[in-house]
């Protein structure tokens, strides 16, 4: 087959022929938007998880209604439990045979206190989900990816890809904010983890990147009216002077997972309306 013919064929196919995996996929936040975005982009095999079984079920139902051809594996659980994480990754590989695009969104807010006011329990809670949970999940994903053959890229010029991981960190992993030390540190850890994994797993054909969202309009920060009032000034000091939407973060995650990002490795991509420009 000529190269032109093979390129034409590839361009008519989805960028996501493999299996997508998203944590924190319930509700109406970034994980939910990312799960929908993968299926909208033609990915037909998707695994989703969240600690909240009710809202996870709603995400799965809403995807199935819009895209009846999508195969969805939705299992609720706690990503800070290594038993749950290892068992769920095992179920994904058993059902779909592999996993290719992993977006690790599950996270919790910190206690909203400075360090001397923060209890050990509050510190441990935020780190158990944001840092330990991200490490447990990406560790299990890397192990599974290392056992599978790479998938061809969307064009013949680029190398095949064995897998891509996108960890959702935060702009607060890069810059500080008052009364957020435990949360900022947990997200800084996610950025450092991403960079080191990117170095260690490049040789295996796996890319590991992270996204550092700015203020995104999700239930995470918007549950109460006073939350909204407290957070708005942080959105308004960014050059774009608005909150971001979950689908704007999802689009960045899909790019980083796709083979269009074939030379992007260990990057901490800000998606924050210019809040952090360095
Ligand atoms: N919204 C923002 O402004 C913002 C900014 C920067 C970073 N982030 C990060 O983006 C990610 C997604 O947040 P979001 O804004 O979409 O909020 P969200 O609350 O919609 O999503 C977080 C999800 O994680 C789930 N979760 C919490 N603990 C869990 C656990 N132990 N195991 C499994 N799932 C668990 C929640 O149930 C929830 O569905 C988080 O990691 C957050 O830190 C959000």
UniProtKB/TrEMBL annotation:
Coiled coil start-end? none
> Which InterPro entries does this UniProt record tie to the protein?
NAD(P)-bd_dom_sf (IPR036291), SDR_fam (IPR002347)
CDD domains, per database record: SDR_c (cd05233)
User: Which keywords does UniProt give here?
Assistant: Oxidoreductase
Q: Which domain of life is it from?
A: Eukaryota
Q: Name one Pfam family in it.
A: adh_short_C2
Instruction: Say which family it is in.
Output: Belongs to the short-chain dehydrogenases/reductases (SDR) family.
Q: What name does this protein carry?
A: Oxidoreductase
Species of origin reads Phyllosticta capitalensis
